[in-house]
Amino acid sequence: MKEFVILGYGAAGFAALIQANELGVKPVLIGYGPLGGTCVNVGCIPSKRLLRIAEMYSTAVRLHQFEKFNIRPDYESAFLDSRKIVEMLRKEKYENLLSKYDVEVVEGKAHFISTHSVKVNGKIIEGKKFVIATGSSPYVPPIDGLREAGFWTNVEALNPDRKINSLAVIGGRAQALEFSQIYKRLGVDVVILQRSKVLLPDWEPEISLEAQKVLEDDGVYVVTNVKIKKVEREEGVKRIITDKGNVEVDEILIATGRKPNIDLNLEVAGVQLNEWGGVKVNDELQTTNPDIYAAGDVIGGVMLESLAGFEGTVATKNALSDSHKKVDRSTVPQVVFTQPNIARVGKKSENAESRVIKLKELSKAAILGEERGLIKMTVEKESKRILEVQMLGENAGDIINEATLAVKFGLTVDNIIDTVHAFPTMSEALRLVALSFYKDVSKLSCCV
Amino acid sequence: MKFRIKKEELVCEHCGAPLSEDNIYVREIKGEKHYFCCSHCADAYEEKLK
Question: Is the CB of residue B3 less than 8 Å away from at least one CB of chain A?
Fold first, then answer.
């Protein structure tokens, strides 16, 4: 019987492997598809690289002296560049790493055949402890005619088989926003079709509206509160019929979220599912089978590379030692990597109050030539303890880490106010919104 | 890209005022998010449903 078996070799699986070795255990690592899973191959790495390429060109175009050159990134070159980054990072961060660790790798798709054994490639592997880290796949909503007409998910959108001139993005959350900006800035006409009344419907409403403005500034056509009736294909054109009218495009991108990969015969292992359709775990990441743990996207809910890696480490520590480490998902920051970024951390509770400031109040925003955006802070009324921060603005993805420390360690607005911030920086947004609980920040000079 | 699609502006679900990031208020009523210009409109909307 093997000491420790890891199912999946993406971010969570690799973190589990590294932690197991640190605890002196040689695991069996079972997975299929390219090493590294979604993030490095068809997720964060290529999409953020494409956003960066699009951002560089967009910035250049905005500068007056370049206007006459009508600069636009080359469609094919952008994807080629992103594929190079994927290959480089997959090799450096995953393939080459395997030889540095003590591990038995089995390539194949595993499924449980009992509470302590899995079958893969016809071979039975028994284990004392398991970590399920099989990740997630795109969720495709049941739309009449969609499968017949054909569509893209993030996989095809990051590796397009042809140059397209128009794209309809179905969805209105992080992935939909990022791909809309990438394709629009690569010269493709983009329309977003979002079922909810706003983009990013589970974010603060000010952020939702500002996000829509940012995309519309880029030239993306955003339609909200729309119901898709059916999709048709005719002579290479895809027609989307909705309750608000029709759209004809070259391609359709489905960006309506992801579903946990739970096709593992979990019932025989005594592993139950949760309300998200993922693997049910307690706060120590233990499933309903005490010898099986889970980590990352397969749990469902918030699906993030950073969280998956952290959970892979925690699940392994808990499975192989008495560490009883817990994961607090409420202080995990989330970022939409559009330009400007959109970021948040924490959650509201009863008896709270909020303040919003526009980022045009910051000198750095003017220096960067990017004054769009806002920051919203929510605190506990009596103590002024910071509960939640949401921000849309340049570099918000970096600034949110300071807010994360504040939320995680229970800092108050006074703690932030009493901390001198470097000037001029976008991080001052956090101090300025903290100050706004006491004064009108529009009447302040640069450094107060 | 060809499209003939109606785009709706987000307005207060009680008084019909256009909403912007300067005046937007959201309240979840019966499991669905509703958008208003202020808490008074949200209260009035909720009252109407009773």
Answer: yes
Distance CA A113, CA A126 (A): 10
Peptide bond into A290 cis (omega under 30): no
pTM of the model: 0.91
Question: Which pLDDT tens digit goes with each residue over A241-253?
Answer: 999 999 999 999 9
CB nearest to A244's CB, from B1, B6, B24? B6
Give the pLDDT confidence of A153-208 residue by residue, as tens digits. Answer: 999 999 999 999 999 999 999 999 999 999 999 999 999 999 999 999 999 999 99
Provide, as residue numbers in chain A, all residues whose Cβ is less than 8 Å from the Cβ of B8. Answer: 224-225, 244
8 Å CB contact of A205 and B7:
no
Q: Report whether A45 contacts A23 (CB < 8 A).
A: no
Q: Give whole-number Cα distances, A393 to A44, A64, A349, in Å.
A: 20, 22, 25
Instruction: Please state the ipTM of this predicted complex.
Output: 0.91
**Of B1, B7, B33, Cβ closest to residue A201:** B33
Residues of A in contact with B5 (CB under 8 A): 191, 223, 226, 242, 244-247
Which of A170, A154, A157 shows the shortest CA–CA distance to A223?
A170
